[in-house]
């Protein structure tokens, strides 16, 4: 080692690569302008390759690399970027972790990142594709590469950025996805001693460029004492696409209007509306949660706009349904809880948006033209037009209004909202309507609506939605005028005493209250209250649903107390119930920490549920539940109970989330009957590379493509892993947002390697986007390379011609290569001259794929 420093290092003769690297680090640390003498590695200079490229430490070759680009601490995009070698003598030399590379940032990329070019007119001198020296042209800007993570951090001063909201991704990065056919199924059923039911929901679709063709239907069959009912329902069939320049969505076919101004109704026609998902998160709405209390192992059915959209089976006690995908963005949810004794509890969950405030300058519109559509045979299909407009004004005000027009109905609405700062937000609107009813009478009326929302952070109180609507006696809706008769009562075909649905225009809606409030108590848990009440003109009864609850946890033990009250017009008695639930993990009795829980008991917990209804009947149920398997994708539960009205009862259930779908099995019994129930759900995608099966698809999905990498799990996704070809579907992606897709490298076998296991995609609404991964599947081998009975020089670069697998020669001509094919050619280079390179052909035995690491040798010619 010859050095310009005053501390020379004594020559060494290393016998291993580790010792050589140590010598380099030791002799060069803290000293500049160092020269590496190959004599440190061997007295024979010919046995060492030209190491000039390593003289400056961690130097990487220039070229194109795919990197994650972070802008001001936020993940912006993943792109292929050209990197050039940096001048090590430059005052602005990059840090060591960059590998001696600097990025080539052109105007197209900087515009994509939100740079305001109008503020920097001198940037106009750079042509398209030409590298812009960011730090020189923009004061305070920087670009730094972390080569080990393939992460490029770009810092841009706030003053140089366009005025976009935090988290917003520009349309240039949105991906319309690939062309594919999509299929979804959800099958559930039960078999009792006297009755049985089956429900099948089928969703199919076709993606062609920006267009999404969708069809949704359900088939149901119910039998009771030899009488059957049910049939096929076409829930919706439509074509949809995003209109990016307008930040809108277009639907042609079946759909539902929103409930910003008027009540949501179904239609068959065309709708064009502003899509909130194209705006930042702060401008987006909320989704409903269905809560309730079951007295036994009950069937819960949820309907919206006359169509059954969800069906499941729950155990006794309080239940929450948070994973439901509604068929429209609005429309009240009609919930039916059917107990094992045949009794039913019905209530309505209001589903509408929060106060209609918009940011200053934003204009939100919605236009629908078509025929009225519902799931009831008792209604007509009049042609109607609906238009609404919401405008954000100065001073925190929002003005909104709209109109509905058909042959027998005309309505005009106008309202305003205001941001009250610390006092929350409110909106108030008035709707006037002119109606021609089925009995040929004409009515005129008004409806006044008030909405309020507020979060009191200092007190932990959240008014998620408080609202009240008062309607005069002559006020009717468009849906009311579509009925063929003034009143109608429909009873169940299998049970004539059961009232399924009804309407009575002689007693139209009067007042309606709805609300949802939650209160955190810090270490003492949380309280919540939600409910609604609908009154009618000329009717003493009302539709009522209220629920109050308290939840808390202590040392891993969670418990809750809830009380509910529901009553519907046509039912003489109200249904009231109170329940207490407690869950105790077995790990609470041991000393294991949550980070090391892997045993059977560490993933199991005991449960206790008690219910008391308005008739004074009590029910108690205790059991054990938990998760099994390495990936915790198998849930189980066993319970035993007793009730005053049903006697002894018990249940057992298994729910499995697999790579090709979900499966659930359950058995329950009491002194009156026993019941089996099951549920199966899954999805499939047909694309240019074949057919891929997976878990139930969402509206927007990601196709994971890693050819050859079979049975590799997707991070943070229970049960989702690649099939035998290396493909899988990641459901429920977020539209117009960056979705991180990562493969779990710990789940790969010994013969699979992935260059970059992370991909970021930004899908549009309903798209199927592809996340591709470069997988090398082959042999992991240590190959000894020789030429003329002599080991190849230390530091020589090696690359397999077909697969591109590469490595660097170490001591004694050995090189480690991962992903090698069984046969191929190794191209070796240890200098720039033609005489300083050669090719070695090799052939490995077939059983090499069964070994962790194969030892082999090859001769270079």
Automatic annotation (TrEMBL):
Residues 1-32 form the signal peptide. It is found in: Cell outer membrane. Residues 35-188 form the PapC N-terminal domain. Keywords: Cell outer membrane, Membrane, Signal, Transmembrane, Transmembrane beta strand, Transport. Gene3D superfamilies: 2.60.40.2070, 2.60.40.3110, 3.10.20.410, Outer membrane usher protein FimD, plug domain. It is a multi-pass membrane protein. Belongs to the fimbrial export usher family. This is Fimbrial biogenesis usher protein. It comes from Pseudomonas triclosanedens.
